[in-house]
Amino acid sequence: MSAAISTNGAPRDADSVPRVPIVPVKGPPRAPPQLAAEGIAKSFGSLVVLEDVSLTLPPGTFHALLGENGAGKSTLVKCIMGYQPADAGRILIDGAPVKIESTRAAQAHGIGMVYQHFTLVPNMTVAENLVMARADVPLVIDWNKEREGLRAFMAGMPFQIDPSRVVRSLAAGERQKLEILKQLYLGNRILILDEPTSVLTPSEADEVLGMLRAMAHAREISILMITHKFREVTSFADEVTVLRRGRVAGQGLVKDLTTADMASMMVGGEVPRASSSRAELELGDVRLSLHDIRAVDDRGIGVLDGISLQVKAGEIVGIAGVSGNGQDELLEVIAGQRELAGGEMRVNGVRYTATREETRTAKMRCLPEEPLRNACVSNMSVSENIGFRGYDRPPFTLWGWLVRRDALRRHAAECVSAFKIKTPSVDTAMARLSGGNVQRSVLARELQGEPRVLVVANPCFGLDFAAVAFIRTRLLEARNSGVAVLLISADLDEIFALSDRILVISGGRMVYETPIASAEVATIGKHMAGHG
Questions:
Q1: What's the gap between Cα 137 and its chain centre?
Q2: Coil, strand or helix at 134
Q3: Which residue, among 180, 216, 186, 223, has the nearest Cα to 31 in the 3D structure?
Q4: What is the spatial distance between Cα 313 and Cα 329, in angstroms, rounded to a whole number?
Q5: 259-267 and 465-480 are packed helices; what angle lies between their axes, rounded to 10 degrees?
Q6: Distance CA 493, CA 76 (A)
Q7: What is the mean pLDDT for each group of 10 consecutive residues in the chain (532 residues)?
Q8: 301 has which bridge partners?
Q9: Residue 122: how many CA atoms within 13 Å on its side-chain side?
Q10: Cα(127)–Cα(146) distance, rounded to whole angstroms?
Q11: Are the CB atoms for 363 and 455 separated by under 8 Å?
């Protein structure tokens, strides 16, 4: 393996890891190396995931990587990071081919990754998380010396976090910053970011990405960011590469491209558009009413603290908030999966406790997050999963007890056609479908039989561009037909795209409400962060 250059200019072995490699120095910073992937190909059996993919990350640039689910983004990054070898192609650092067979080797070349989910130890301090991330931690740690080194390191960073703080006390934005600091502390000058803002408020996301862009433009680091948010690309990235079906569908400077251009590259041909818009409706009666809802988490700690809200027929009420502020528990309470500690639910004016019979009578439907895990039996067939709501009722039963599987299959086939579900057959196990097709299947089930109330949670999380357009269209069509829709989403763009009213949840309480006509991202972001 070729030698790498340490931060002080001395050669080091590619498998070695610097101790505290970044220290403040006078004079202009040394630019990060140029990273290039050339002709990368990767297959898993007969499935071709990447085919002749090339990408160049010049020093001091912010590069976005776009593509639908299955386009090959994660596989490309894994090849660069050494998680898995490419079948063909090569990685170059400053024009010289290098062999990267492990994350340790990637780090030796100054390449680090900030993952979508935090990799920090919550009960350890900031200092402990940083020091213990090194590969050369001594058996006996001189903490006075380490803290002195950390102070010198922090002094050269654009943002600081008190090394003595325990990670569990940090807000989501601070934890994301710490993940970035950890990579810089390890000497990495090329940072790969995987959906870095998924747990941040809008203001936190703008702050973090703004600081990273400033560092890149100062030629201190280079950034390669996987994202699905066009706003982040247009606001912060210099260049973009779009993958489609394992090949490069387009590349270029962001300033020369529109979001429509990028969307067209992602999906090919005409960009999928919502076939339904928000119709002007006279709101109907209150369909869903929550009054002073209280609940505790699995540890017995209060997590919902007096939630009250109403959703009327023909409106979508969006609940915005940073993940972990009670959204999951609220959905579980409404779905009958978590007991109430106080308060009352009413559906169509009638007290509601979420029994199966009450759900059926009230025509109350629910689309939870991660439906394969939370709303399906993965090893059962598509037809069986779609038929869960009515399998024990005519026309799917004979004599009140015998299930007519032929009727279930015919019904499922109609849903597959209507909702454009891609499946080998209705007898295929649900686990074999893609995430978008699982979501379509569950949505098809929940929208059958003219529902009156629909509660959905992060309905488009992790889905590709075409699936997102389809799901959102169906939700708007349900709303336009008079369904009362409660939308819980961590994606503020989704909240704005679909909602008639927006509520903000923070610390288990509803802290802000606004109609969509007067909603402002900055104001909502402040309330999401608990600063309203």
A1: 33
A2: coil
A3: 216
A4: 24
A5: 110
A6: 27
A7: 32 34 44 94 88 96 86 90 93 95 91 86 92 85 89 84 89 84 92 83 84 92 89 93 92 91 74 61 92 90 93 96 85 92 95 91 90 90 90 78 85 92 92 87 89 92 77 92 94 89 93 93 81 66
A8: none
A9: 6
A10: 8
A11: no
Alpha helices in 186-258, H assignment, sequence order = 202-217, 230-236
In angstroms, rounded to a whole number, what is the distance separating the alpha carbons of residues 456 and 465? Answer: 19
Neighbouring residues of 304: CB distance < 8 A, sequence distance ≥ 6: 293, 294, 295, 326, 329, 330, 333, 341, 508
Token output for 529: 């962060």
Residue 498 in 3-state DSSP? helix
The pTM of the whole model exceeds 0.85: no
Sign of CA dihedral 462, 467, 473, 479: negative
Distance of CA 348 to the CA centre of its chain: 34
Q: What are phi and psi of 286, to 5 degrees?
A: -70, 120
Q: Which residue(s) pair with 488 in the sheet?
A: 319, 457
Widest CA span of the chain, in angstroms? 86
Token digits for 219? 């030629």
Kindly state the tokens that stand for 439. Answer: 């979501």
Give CA–CA dist 312/67, Å, rounded: 37
User: Can you say whether residue 49 is alpha, beta or left, with left for phi > 0 and alpha for psi between -120 and 50 degrees?
Assistant: alpha
Query: Among 28, 118, 113, 126, which residue's Cα sits nearest to residue 77?
Result: 113
Measure the CA–CA gap between 381 and 471, rounded to whole angstroms. Answer: 22
End-to-end CA distance of the chain: 54
What residue type is 384 in one-letter code? E
Of residues 343, 369, 340, 337, the one with CA closest to residue 442: 369
Write a three-state SS string for 62-107: EEEEEECCCCCHHHHHHHHHCCCCCCEEEEEECCEEECCCCHHHHH
Count CB-CB contacts under 10 A for residue 521. Answer: 17
Written as one letter, the residue type at 218 is A
| CB environment 353-383: b (16+ within 10 A), e (fewer) | ebeeebbeebbbbbbbbebbebbbeeeebbb
Tokens coding 28? 């202009």
407 close to 361: Cβ distance less than 8 angstroms: no
Structural domains in the chain, CATH included, are 4-267 (3.40.50.300), 284-363+452-532 (3.40.50.300), 376-449 (no CATH)
CA atoms within 13 A on the CB side of 456: 32
